[in-house]
Design brief:
- By secondary structure, this protein is mostly helical.
- It has one domain: Growth Hormone, Chain: A (Up-down Bundle), CATH 1.20.1250.20.
- The chain has 19 helices and no strands.
- α2 runs antiparallel to α7, α7 runs antiparallel to α8 and α7 packs antiparallel against α18.
- The longest helix has about 30 residues.
- The N terminus is likely disordered.
Length: about 450
């Protein structure tokens, strides 16, 4: 009785973990597939002769398709519920991973990312389900826990990628099949464990009357100054951070001579920092300082991390051997490709040491902290500024801006990377965030 009384007297101060646990587990399993692939995709493309600019175009394909589909799927989730839209998007993800497993040309890599991107509303729909299941005082913490699930995925995903690569002789296709398995598990979890949240959050009759998507609804969303600026913050933040995420493994390859297994370790470190920040600190900081402070702090620390990354000394890691890295990229057995197809310029073996990797490890910490705090803070502010019946649509708009930035970022970073050198895109991303840091305090009230 005492516990029940406590629960009733503190409904606005405590997050109902039992209610959101299925959402978090589904997101984690779903992201396991994604995070296994992320560190490998640039190297996957490089095996088929892709130069940095082509790698950037490949990385842009998924978010560009997601940009087209996310607002529509967000509105559909407002009308028909989170569960059917989530399952449909997960089936698309599974199809994309299966095709990736069969891919033996650069063209099929592009097709697999197009399929996955068009159905890629998984995270936006899960965020809407979290918004349905929380109140204004616990929403940032709930959204932060989705980010923490992403962090756990970044820890476990690269570990699994390392194990699969080691067990299969650098067989990149085997990693894609492993990602497909996690995607299938997420579909089953959604179908049999996840409970619909829209019916609890609003009147179903009102939901049925709403159109799944309209340009009038989009226009109304952008008529609200607070929302339009927050969406702009999301866009420019992700232009800077998205390029960092998507070309980081290429940067470590040409700057420090690190192959896929080595870079997976750095993704693990970033994941651990994100887990600590988003699972243990975001909720506390939000309650103590507010989402505005959290957003500004995220912008500032991320700027420091990106500039620090760009300044990483070009000192290959002590264990670097050019021939070994080339052979690991070429693979073995039936999936072997010629090293002559690889157009990435690797560092020389002279002057190896710990300075480069040590510097990058330090720079990765503020980058992970900034990336871990800014996203949930901005989405929380957006959801609090939107009408309750339009949360899915507003978060869909946010996801569209996020995806548009992710489409632009690798093109922007890839072009700078190829034509001006590896450090330049990261320094440019840091400069964008510094400008945003100076401008944002005047707008975010």
């Amino acid at each position: 009785m005492a516990d029940a009384a406590t629960t009733q007297t503190l409904p606005e101060d405590k997050l109902d973990f039992k209610r959101i646990l299925p959402i978090l587990v589904i997101v984690l399993v779903d992201l396991m597939g994604l995070t296994i692939i992320i560190p490998l995709l640039p190297l996957y493309a490089a095996r088929f002769g892709a130069e940095p600019i082509v790698v950037g175009i490949l990385q842009a394909t998924y978010p560009l398709m997601q940009f087209l589909g996310a607002p529509i799927l967000g509105r559909l989730s407002d009308r028909f519920g989170r569960k059917p839209v989530l399952i449909a998007s997960q089936i698309g993800t599974l199809s994309g991973f299966i095709l990736l497993g069969f891919a033996n040309t650069l063209f099929l890599l592009f097709v697999s990312r197009i399929i996955d991107g068009l159905s890629g509303a998984n995270i936006a729909t899960a965020q809407a389900a979290i918004a349905d299941s929380t109140n204004e005082k616990t929403r940032t913490q709930g959204l932060g826990l989705i980010g923490a699930a992403f962090g756990v995925g970044f820890v476990l995903g690269p570990i699994l990628a390392f194990i699969v690569l080691a067990a299969t002789g650098q067989n990149y296709q085997a990693v894609a099949w492993t990602a497909s398995l996690f995607s299938l598990i997420s579909i089953l979890l959604t179908a049999f464990w996840f409970k619909e949240t829209v019916s609890e959050a609003e009147n179903p009759e009102a939901s049925r009357k709403r159109r799944p998507f309209s340009f009038d609804a989009l226009k109304r969303a952008f008529s609200r100054p607070t929302i339009i600026f927050l969406v702009a913050v999301m866009f420019f933040y992700q232009v800077a951070f998205g390029g960092y995420e998507q070309l980081f493994s290429l940067f470590t390859l040409v700057r420090l001579g690190m192959d896929a297994r080595d870079t997976s370790g750095l993704f693990m470190l970033a994941g651990i920092v994100i887990i600590v920040v988003q699972a243990g600190l975001v909720g506390r900081w939000s309650k103590k300082y507010g989402d505005r402070w959290l957003a500004l702090m995220g912008i500032g620390t991320l700027a420091i991390g990106l500039i620090g990354t760009g300044l990483t000394p070009a000192v290959p890691v002590p264990w670097y051997e050019q021939e070994r890295v080339l052979n690991s990229m070429a693979g073995e057995g039936a999936f072997h490709v010629s090293t002559q197809n690889i157009n990435i310029e690797l560092p020389e073996e002279t002057s190896r040491g710990w300075l480069g990797i040590g510097w990058l490890l330090v720079a990765s910490i503020p980058a992970a902290i900034g990336g871990g705090t800014l996203h949930p803070a901005v989405n929380s502010l957006i959801s609090k500024s939107a009408d309750k019946t339009e949360v899915g649509g507003m978060l869909g708009v946010s996801a569209a801006a996020y995806s548009a930035a992710n489409a632009i970022a690798p093109l922007f970073y890839g072009a700078l990377f190829q034509w001006l050198g590896a450090p330049v895109p990261f320094l440019a991303g840091g400069a964008i965030l510094l400008a945003l840091f100076l401008f944002a305090p005047r707008i975010i009230k």
